[in-house]
UniProtKB/TrEMBL annotation:
Stretches of the chain forming a coiled coil according to its record: none
CDD domains named in the record: HTH_BmrR (cd01107)
One protein family per Pfam: MerR_1
Source organism of the structure: Brevibacillus fortis
Organism lineage: Bacteria, Bacillati, Bacillota, Bacilli, Bacillales
PANTHER family found in the cross-reference section: MERR FAMILY REGULATORY PROTEIN, REDOX-CYCLING DRUG-SENSING TRANSCRIPTIONAL ACTIVATOR SOXR
Protein name stated in the entry: MerR family transcriptional regulator
InterPro entries assigned to the protein according to its UniProt record, in alphabetical order: AraC_E-bd, DNA-bd_dom_put_sf, MerR-type_HTH_dom, MerR_fam, Reg_factor_effector_dom_sf
Assigned keywords, A-Z: DNA-binding
């Protein structure tokens, strides 16, 4: 048998930890001297301690570990506890991944603020009616790729071919972080669909102020501000009740599927 100090040294845990595990009935010493109170442990108890430490590293609480160390607990219940812990950790990973994506998007926005074309590259043009398959929803910026994925999946099941991606930005005074967004695909012919997907024709716009810029579908960019300044300085005003359109011209990088060169379009009229 080993004294508590010897057992602690061999197992590489502190004496304080072993005393605490004794107090909470997690790992009782094999023998406690009734006169001196000294604790003694056997070599076999190192296997128990290693299991405790392994469960602790996985994030289980001491109460949960005590349950799993009990001989009476069924194996299926232990499996269930592991599944719950797996789900908890996956949830944490998903939240942190979403946070990491937001940081990535913000860095992209900061690094590309100056890449939009200057105001003299704004082009005024007429836009013909356009037939689109669309999906409209209130959602955060970083969920837009998911909306496109659902839209494309539906389009694929319908056996229809499509053209460019488009985002329609609708005004929404009370949306806060959940923007009123409509993702769309330009299509060549009408076909029957089901909600929440809609086939519709976007109206002809006699005068559209347009600007080519770099963007990501998962974050805000400065192109809208730049185009709005041009509109104001050149004697135009934004036409009411017409959503801002953004057509993805091409992917900017094959390594970043959410990065695009896009044409921003805002319907205008003479002020």
């Amino acid at each position: 048998m080993f004294k508590i100090s010897e057992f602690a040294k061999i197992s590489q845990v502190s004496v304080k930890t072993l005393r605490y595990y004794d107090q909470v009935h997690l790992l009782k010493p094999a023998h406690t001297d009734k006169f001196s109170g000294y604790r003694y442990y056997t070599a076999d108890q190192m296997f128990q301690l290693n299991r405790i430490l392994a469960y602790k590293e996985l994030g289980f609480s001491l109460d949960q570990i005590r349950q799993m160390m009990s001989e009476q607990i069924p194996l299926e219940q232990i499996r269930g506890m592991f599944r719950i812990k797996q789900s908890e950790i996956q949830s944490i990973l998903d939240k942190e991944q979403a946070r990491l994506n937001l940081i990535k998007d913000r860095l992209y926005a900061i690094e590309n603020e100056g890449k939009s074309l200057p105001s003299h590259d704004v082009i005024l043009k007429k836009v013909e009616p356009q037939l689109v398959l669309s999906y409209r929803k209130r959602t955060p910026f970083n969920k837009i790729p998911e909306l496109f994925q659902q839209l494309d999946d539906h389009l694929g099941r319908s056996g229809q071919s499509s053209l460019s991606r488009m985002v329609l930005w609708h005004g929404c005074e009370e949306c806060d972080d959940n923007m009123d967004v409509e993702v769309a695909r330009l299509i060549s012919q009408d076909f029957q669909t089901v909600p929440p997907f809609t086939v519709k024709q976007l109206p002809e716009i006699p005068l559209m102020a347009t600007l080519i810029h770099h963007c990501r579908t998962t974050c805000r960019c400065t192109a809208s501000v730049e185009l709005a300044l041009w509109i104001e300085r050149n004697g135009y005003r934004i036409k009411e009740n017409e959503p801002r359109r953004e057509i993805c011209v091409r992917r900017e990088s094959p390594d970043d599927p959410d990065s695009y060169v896009a044409e921003l379009q805002i319907a205008v009229e003479k002020a």
